[in-house]
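Chapter summary example.
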Amino acid sequence: MPRLIIVSNRLPVTVSADGEGTVVHHSSGGLATGLRVPHERSGGIWIGWPGDLSEATPEEALAIEERLREMNVVPVGLTREEQHVYYEHVCNAVIWPLCHDRIDQLPLLVEGWGVYERVNRRFADLVVEHYQPGDLIWVHDYQLMRLPALLRERLPDARIGFFLHIPFPNPEIFFALPTRRWLVEGMMGADLVGFHTRRYRGHFTAALRRLFGIEPSADASVLWSHRRVALGVFPMSVDAANIAERASAPEVAAERAELRAGVDRLLVGIDRLDYSKGIPRRLLAFERLLIEHPEWRERVRFTQIAVPSRGGVRAYRRFRRDVDALVGRINGEHATPTWIPVHYIYNTVPESTLLALYRAADVMLVTPVRDGMNLVAKEFVASRVDEDGVLVLSEFAGAADELSEALIVNPYDIDGVVVALDAALNMAGMERRARMKTLRAQVLTHDVHRWAASFLDALAAVRRRKSRRTSGASPDKAVQK
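The structure predicted for these 481 residues follows.
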């Protein structure tokens, strides 16, 4: 297996230093889990930001550096100002809302692209420093859209892959960015560009067509600057077998029993508190269910976990206030002395509690208004070792392309979601188990390890073929912003 250099905004480790000691341990996120095996087997390195270590003493900084070296990870140093502009402003206040169809959330003044380029160049410097001929380079996500082109300038013969973990939007929305051409040129420095779904790849090829006059070939590749770039579809997943094993633990079963005590039917939603997740519309649909189907009053409870997210971005602070007010109004208007319809938790919760909620749910609500994939849906399915429970899933989540046995809904259609909720609550056991059995077969077979292996196999197979001409207009050399 070729040596692998993985590049992502954050390292797959959590580092903390407070002047009293340091702690470094592996993270448990989907990307960290999926790439841990190829990272370790290939003897490669992982490059990324380790978090804010400005409070670390010199001794702690040395201890952290040594520990990271032992784990084959390379930290990228960013100042607090760079992190604020690059990550909070450009990435999360501009690129994120645009790619999730929320152009209304863009700040009035869109700036900071020079810092974004500078940070991407710092990542490039470290990749070039550690690169060895024959290495595979895999760049991840919207924080590093410029990095493939920056690497191509300095490592013209390297095999470079780029995977976009969020949606690539319809060009009509993407073209609102004045830097649209510059960002696409950045991605096209790769030999292989991966997306979760055919829809996102289609949006990207439409952008190529309109920006550069380039048409994809029959094998979904394009000619770009005298080389061929493959555009692939690789739906990300979860470590399904491991989740199933952890969900079967006795402590999870005990907590599940506590969650079900005194509850006839339990609806569950688990999301980061993000405007892309559709939480307000979900709450309104639940309220409408109580109004149109009063037989569920005092019988059903909706538990919504909202994990704090991006509190440094103004739009997220406003969104939190809106959700808090909506939950308060619904509970104020519909609660009784013995029943509160919405159990709302704005906090992180232990992994065992998340698994217990998955196991306890009669109905799992995953209804984003736009989501690249949504791994919560797949985690829920993987955890249901009892082959029971119903998944209500937005058609605008990438996971909907694979999980067709869920009840697929349009989250903008509140009445339609109410119909699906009532159907899910009334679904016969035989149908629930048949649907869940099919869903579990899909998720267990197409897990995160298969996702990583399929992308790396495709990248390893790349043979950079020179061409004397390009299809359509020859793209201009990217200019620094």
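To summarize the output: The first helix runs from residue 30 to 42.
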